[in-house]
Structure formats: C-alpha cells, structure tokens
Amino acid sequence: MYLKNTYKLRHGLTAALVAGLFPVTLTVSAQDAPPAQEKGPAAADAMLHALQVDYPTPYRAMEEAEVKAVLDRVFAYLDRTTPAELINKTTGAPVTDLSRPDPDAVFKPGDFRLTSYEWGITYTGMLAVGAVTRDQRYTDYTLTRHKLLSQLTKTYYPAVQADLKNSHAPIKSFLNPHALDDAGALCHSFMKAKLAGSAVDYTQMIGICGDFVTRKEYRLKDGTLARGGPDGQGGVKMRPLPDTLWLDDMFMGVPTIAYLGAVTGDRKYFDDAAKQVLQFSKRMFNPRLGIYMHGYVEGMRDHPELHWARANGWAVMAMAEILDVLPKNHKLYGAVLEQLRAHIKGLASYQTRDGFWHQLIDRPDTYQETSATAIYTYAIARAVNRGYVEAQMYGPMVNLAWNAVAGKVTANGQIEGICVGTGMAFDPAFYAYRPTSVKAAHGYGPTLMAGAEIIAMNRKFKFGLNDSGLMYQGVRQ
C-alpha cells in the first residue's frame, strides 16, 4: 500500500510540474518554428566559414592568359635549348649541306635529344598548344624539326640500311630502331602533324617507324606488345625478364597503331590497337584499385604490383589518344571507352590535397611527381572536353591538377619534380627513391599538352566558387 501511494504521489507531482512548465505544448503545432531563444553570434563570428583559406596550390580555375604565360616560359626554354642544327663533331662548324651523308655530322648540343620518345611527345604538345592558341611559334617548333628529320631520313637511311653496324647517322636510333622507345612516340607525332595538314613529307619516316611498331617489335602469342623476346643469338633478352609487359608500351606503341588506321584507312590497325588496350588491361589493371601495375611477366603466378604514376600516365594518355581516331562504330570502341572511364575514376581517388599524384600512386610515403600529374591533367581534361566523363565531376579536380603542375614551372621555363628515366623493379624502394631533375625530358611534352587541354576545357565550361568550393557552373555561351 505504501509503495502504491508513493507512486501515485510522484506521478501526480510530475504531471503538475510538466503542466506548469509547458502550458502551451497542447496548442502549438509541431510544424511551427521554435521561438528565438537568445541573441545570435557576432557578425564576424557568423562568417567563419568564409574565412580566407591558405591553399598551397591556387584553388581556382586559372585564366587563359595565365595558362598561356606558363606555356610561353616552357616554350622559350625549349626553343633556346633544343637547336635544330647539325654541326661537325670535331670543329663545331655548322653542317649546311644535308643532301649527302656526313660521317662527322651531329646535332648541335642542347638540353634534350630531338629523336627521343620524350621529344615525340613534346612535338605533339607543341602542335596542341599551337592549335588551341593560334600561336604559330609552337606549330613551327614541331614542323621545323620534323622537316629536318625528314631530310636526314632521306639522306642517311640508305647508308644505314647498307651497314647497320658500322654506319653513322645523327638519327641512327630512329633509322634502325631496337625498341618501341626509338620509334613509337615519334611516329605518333608525325601522323598527328600529317592529319593536321602539315606539308612535311612524312612518307618514308612513317614507313620506317610504322613497320617497326606493327611488324618487328616482339609480341606475346596473343599479339600483345612485349619485351624480353629473342636476342638474335639463340637466347632471350632480359627486359627485365622474358615475356615482360611494360605498361609504358601502351603509349609507346598503341597510339601509333591506331593512327596508322587513320592515315591509311586500313581497319586492321584499329582492330590491333583496340585489342592491345584490352589485352594490356586484362593483365595489368587492378579493378579494385582502379589503377595499373607497371610490369607483368607472362607465365608467373604473381606479379609485381607496383603502381608507378608515370606508367599509369602512359596508359591513360594512350586511351585518350586512341579514342580520337578509333571509329565510334568499331566493335571495341565501347570497351576502350569504359576502360578509360574506369581508369580516370580510379586515378581521381588518389589525387593529393595539393593537386598532385604520388610517384607510387597508392603510396603516400612517396613524393608527389610532376610528369604523371601533367599527363593525368591532359588525359582527364581531354576526356571532359570529348564528353567521355562529366565536367561536373572532373573539371574542378583537373583544374587543381593543372595549377599544381604550373607551380612547378620555374621563371626560366624549366619544370621541377620530374622523375628521371625509370626501368622496372619488383620492390617499392626502386621507385620511391628515383631522383627528379629539370633535365628529365618526360615532363615537358605532357605539360604543353595539359595546358592546351585546360585552355580548351575552360573555354567550353565555366568553373567558379560555390559555397567556397570550386564547382562546375555550366557551359559557356
């Protein structure tokens, strides 16, 4: 009885207390806004979300004139340090008669080689900037050197073929190629220039490099371009092991094959190029991570999954280039496009807060690398411009990536943070400790290509701040 009475007393007191404290709860709608309870924060405090942020990489879409100023610095440096001239290797005197082979003729020394694969990409980059900005200096840079290479091919090729071992030529590595690096990227630049209307005679040069890429380079049994084939003496080359796929070769060979289709009209080249992309990807793309391994050895159970940034750049660039010429009605066009989209989506998830990508993409303990970031900038911006991926998703991040690359261009036009030439390894230390140098040629062409594509993208689409975030703001009128 005592407990029952105590409960009734407590219950009654509680009900009375609630009724006294909240007499209006029965008459106010649950949808009504609550009354103001106290004075709000001071005006200065209310705008904390809008405080100026100290971004290490500029957080905005760069104006076209600013992009062009960065590219102009790079152009001035390269134009100054890559002379298109021959000299006598002993006397240093200019060699002006290019109609006959001269065993003492060499290129006038510069910072970079005019027939390296890196310079094939640089020629393509110069063409891209010239096309988008209408600055003829960039176009002329490439065409002047292409014309020189064409003349040297006519003059020296017969002698080189007559004596492959002992003959001399300033461009012998091109006239007698031993690897895709000697031929593929150069060939790609020749065909891009030809399709753009260049008057240079590319016939002989395209014949030489196109034949090497499509017929002479070693392939696996299913036709995939590979290294580590026969050494010509009964053994095999160790590159670094027999039957090794290098992701680099997706760019060093496959765009050339696709562009041969565009130049000749023969669809067999389109078939080969598309199959190459899918066969490389089947072996080397990790769909869970969205990125590629650098190397694959046919016949091994496990493979060295080192996700080197620049090699992933060669892959994404190759796909962007191939889709420019692969007919949309080709049976494998959709598969190549989906592979490009999958790779871009994967890459996007690894971009650092400063706009770069790491030397080993999924290893934040490795340094932020410039050439790969430039290649991704180009390929992703091109994919946006072609409608392969959404501007809303990828435009802001690729603007950030361009700003990161631009920040590595010095006042004299050199580019910092470029990893030097890199072989293949089965351990992370090799990649993590590769040096960087402003004399590493690999970053110059991609930077030119990236800048050209960013200009084109920001002409087409507007990006600006919305609630402090860099966002897509529509198609420009």
Automatic annotation (TrEMBL):
Tell me the leader sequence span.
1-30
Locate the coiled-coil region(s) and give their ranges: none
Top-rank lineage group of the source organism:
Bacteria
Which Pfam families would you find in this protein's record?
Answer: Glyco_hydro_88
Q: Which UniProt keywords apply?
A: Hydrolase, Signal
* Entry annotated with the keyword Acetylation: no
Its GO biological process annotations read: carbohydrate metabolic process
Q: Which GO terms describe its molecular function?
A: hydrolase activity
Q: Which Gene3D superfamilies match?
A: 1.50.10.10
Question: How is this protein named in the record?
Answer: Glycoside hydrolase family 88 protein
Supply the source organism for this entry.
Pseudoduganella rivuli
